[in-house]
Amino acid sequence: MIANYHTHTYRCGHAVGREREYVEAALEAGLRLLGFSDHTPYDYFDSEPRNRPMRMMPEELPDYAGTVRALASEYRDRLELHLGVEAEYYPKYFPRLLELLRENGVEYMLLGQHYLGNEIGDVYSGRAFLDRATLERYVAQTAEALDTGLFSYFAHPDLIRYVGSRRVYEREMRTLCRKARDTRTPLEINLLGLREGRHYPSEFFWRIAAEEGNSVILGCDAHRPQELIAGESEQRARALADRLGLTLLDTLPLRKL
């Protein structure tokens, strides 16, 4: 890998390491480009808690942005750095989110749809379920997100854990893959899932993506600095791509907010 756009920090509450530690690990890994994409804050104006312990608080965003910008200047001759976030698409809060990110000079977003609806009281995408309507909601909501043209890529699109009919899953995932292809949004093979033996990356999903001609990129989804030194997980991801005939992108243009 020469670029990784999927990098977290201690600010999200479930990762460790400060930004400088990730920069030094990226240099050790031989990366030429590092994008920080910690979990975005959300302002929940009419419900508590404002933020679950999976993302930074809104008041932390200015310091996050300033830290990354300062490091980008300091390391400019050794490593290209970019300031981003990983965000869910929540229709109710999306306009306010864009304001918040633009106010703080955030350059790009990755789509990581961990919850459906507007999160509070709704379904977690990674929990096993049988309800076909929930799968259809995931596809419809992420399709709406992709239609905004604001997400640089779709992180772990196979996070959704439908365990019902394979025929239904294939139909819905083809719809998702075609939307990503038509909006020219790359899909991410997630190395965290490989490192931790999660239910994703799903070979069945990636076979569909190969057939639909999707653009594909690797993402470390690093929650510890040393996870930027991908090693075995990168080798396994590349073997999956080779086996299925997927073409991997080395870098991608960032979609400005």
What order do the helices and strands come in, and which of them pair?
Blueprint: E1 3-4, H1 19-29, E2 33-39, H2 61-74, E3 80-87, H3 94-103, E4 108-111, H4 132-147, E5 151-154, H5 166-182, E6 187-190, H6 191-196, H7 203-212, E7 216-219, H8 232-244, E8 248-249
Parallel strand pairs: 1-2, 2-3, 3-4, 4-5, 6-7, 7-8
Helix pairs in contact: 4-5, 5-7
Tell me the number of strands.
8
Largest sheet: 5 strands, parallel
Number of helices: 8
Portion of residues within helices: 25-40%
By secondary-structure content and strand pairing, the structural class works out as: alpha/beta
Share of residues in strands: 5-15%
Q: Output the radius of gyration.
A: 17 Å
Strand order, biggest sheet?
1-2-3-4-5
Oligomeric grouping of the chains: single chain
Distance between the termini: 25 Å
Uncertain residue ranges: none
- The outline comes out as globular
What series of H and E elements makes up the topology? EHEHEHEHEHEHHEHE
